[in-house]
Amino acid sequence: MDHFSYNQGRLFCEGMSADALAEQYGTPLYVYSRKTLEDKYRAIKKAFESVQTIIAFSVKSCSIIGVLNVLRELGAGFDIVSGGELARTMRVGADPRKTVFAGVGKTDEDIRDALAQDILMFNVESEAELDNIQNIAADMGMVAPVALRINPDVDANTHAKTTTGKKENKFGIDFATASRIVRNIAVQPNVRLLGLDVHLGSPIYTTTPYRDALEKVADFILEHRSPRAQFEYLNAGGGYGLLYRDQAVPSFQEYAEAIIPYAKKAGCKLIVEPGRSIVGNAAVLLTRVLYIKDNGHKLFTTVDAGMNDLIRPAMYDAYHFCWPTRSATVPPAHLFTSSDAVAYFTREALETQTGTNTREIQADGLVMTDVVGPICESSDTFAKARRLPPMQRGQLLAIFSAGAYGFSMASNYNSRPRAAEVLVEGDTARVIRRRETLDDLMAGETV
Ligand code: LLP
Q1: Is residue 104 in contact with ligand 1, taking CB distance under 6 Å?
Q2: Would you say the CB of residue 88 lies under 6 angstroms from ligand 1?
Q3: What global pTM score does this model have?
Q4: Residue-wise pLDDT tens for the chain (447 aa)?
């Protein structure tokens, strides 16, 4: 369940009205729903309950400690990719034995810090990194737990910028090299080979790539298992789809059904690294309309959020559903809540539609507009040629599905202080990150 709904023409996050939140905390404002985080986490946990599984939330998708804390309380582990993310998980009191550390460029300092924290394992992305971990662990008098991240050369059919499991991508180790590493593992006395890891890309809207990759990985484990390479864990990565537009998104159950048989076949415990599917629909970005401009050719609605607050449309041409927080025309729930949408946009339904935009809202009085931000780049556009109710200066617009790779990719471009973030819990809201000030903006700089 997502806990965003329209009640008498007004948008609510759980029990809080979006307008009241914007009034109190200003805009642009990220608004997170705790209940949505809880529901999504529990749904994934349930889907994987038939095997021992660590749900390692992918911190890069949403790294604010207010959200990490909710997930830690629910029992989540964490997938991290930097010393900064390690520090964040430590700050919320995460269990290091449920923390896995991936990334192609771990620094010596990252490796030392993570070893000192006794994390569950490093997901190693190259032979050279493995050698480095061996040397650092030897120096520290430790044995470093590692998994090899395999690049299975499987196409996840996702955006070119977010696909990771093809041989032309920088991620992971090919099977031939992995095989050599495993056969020679005895020369690395300070590493312990705990598992294999594979992450194919994000978001992945069918389960086939998981099956294709995991079949190869499970076979590799069965062929290479030895006393020095016991492969206790199979890490299937993240990448589950999120409904942004009118995709058919497999349920958590369907992803789990694709993945679990291979963990069983390989005799491994499972690790999964979901990010987007937990937090994506758990937040909206609220933004206020600054100006309306009709240039005789197009209607532009300029809002006070920019690509520095939410870069996905500019970077990946990503579609985010937008709608005013107050509107006589209430959008159908399947357009902005994933639970309704999953039932509505089934693969069968989409296949039988011919060229119709299933997201087009059929209502009188809508106007076609581009929703743009204030940043000096044409790519600073949240929505192109969208049919929306006519808007005025001062009105609030909600940009939906903004929880994943939203604030975590925000920047200060154009010297814009970053937005505030609030966490709604029923009918209360808490600031989990205050709005940046101009002093914050220049902190650390010298003349
Ligand atoms: N594990 C690894 C090794 C990853 O690289 C990622 C995401 C995940 C797990 C989590 O994937 P998720 O469950 O969130 O799909 N900025 C892009 C997405 C980049 C994904 C990077 N890796 C976007 O906004 O679409």
Answers
A1: no
A2: no
A3: 0.96
A4: 789 999 999 999 999 999 999 999 999 999 999 999 999 999 999 999 999 999 999 999 999 999 999 999 999 999 999 999 999 999 999 999 999 999 999 999 999 999 999 999 999 999 999 999 999 999 999 999 999 999 998 888 888 877 788 888 899 999 999 999 999 998 899 999 999 999 999 999 999 999 999 999 999 999 999 999 999 999 999 999 998 888 889 999 999 999 999 999 999 999 999 999 999 999 999 999 999 999 999 999 999 999 999 999 999 999 999 999 999 988 888 888 777 777 777 777 777 765 555 667 878 899 999 999 999 999 999 999 999 999 999 999 999 999 999 999 999 999 999 999 999 999 999 999 999 999 999 999 999
Q: Is 312 in the pocket of ligand 1 (CB under 6 A)?
A: yes
Report the atom number in ligand 1 closest to the C-alpha of 318: 25
Q: Which residue among 40, 41, 57, 61 is best mutated to probe the pocket of ligand 1, counting the most ligand atoms within 8 A of its Cβ?
A: 61
Question: Active-site residue 62, yes or no?
Answer: no
Do 117 and 96 meet the contact criterion of CB atoms below 8 Å apart? yes
CA-nearest of 162, 157, 129 to 144 is: 129
Residue nearest to atom 3 of ligand 1 (CA): 199
Q: Give whole-number Cα distances, 232 to 1, 192, 218, 256, 411, in Å.
A: 34, 11, 12, 19, 39
